[in-house]
Amino acid sequence: MIAEKALKEIPFTTGFMVVDLENLEVLEKSGEAEKIEEPVKNLIRDYMETYINLGELDIGLPTEMLLTFDAVFVLMRFFPEINRVFVAVTQKEANLGFVRMMMIRYSEEV
Asked: Are 17 and 87 in contact (CB under 8 A)?
């Protein structure tokens, strides 16, 4: 499972979720991701609605959303080619470049 694997492989990660982009079904979740499942699904829905309203492919493919708080990051990376969104909850010390790289690797495993 990608969600469990991410908790072990990505330093400072406290939660991870895999969401089906088309129907917003949570396919996998681990750690603190369970606490934010519904708000994340709503954010993804709103993000995609905004994308559609702005012209879809005219503005490019959806890429990511980053929420920052004093103590944590929530990074949502979109992979429309495989119909998935990966969501990582990390402590502020996390290297977001590394988190992105690992998400790309995980997308290649799907």
From this structure: yes
- Would you say 26 and 44 are in contact if contact means Cβ atoms under 8 Å apart? no
Which tens digit of pLDDT belongs to each residue from 30-74? 999 999 999 999 999 999 999 989 988 788 888 999 999 999 999
Determine the Cα–Cα distance for residues 56 and 74; give it in Å rounded to an integer.
24
- Give the amino acid at 60: G
Cβ atoms of 98 and 11 within 8 Å: the answer is: yes
Q: Minimal CA–CA distance to 17: which of 99, 106, 86?
A: 86
Give the C-alpha separation, 78 to 47, whole Å. Answer: 10
* Pairwise CA distance, residues 72 & 21, whole Å: 24
What's the rounded mean pLDDT across residues 80-97? 97
Strands (E), the chain: 13-20, 26-31, 64-68, 72-79, 84-91
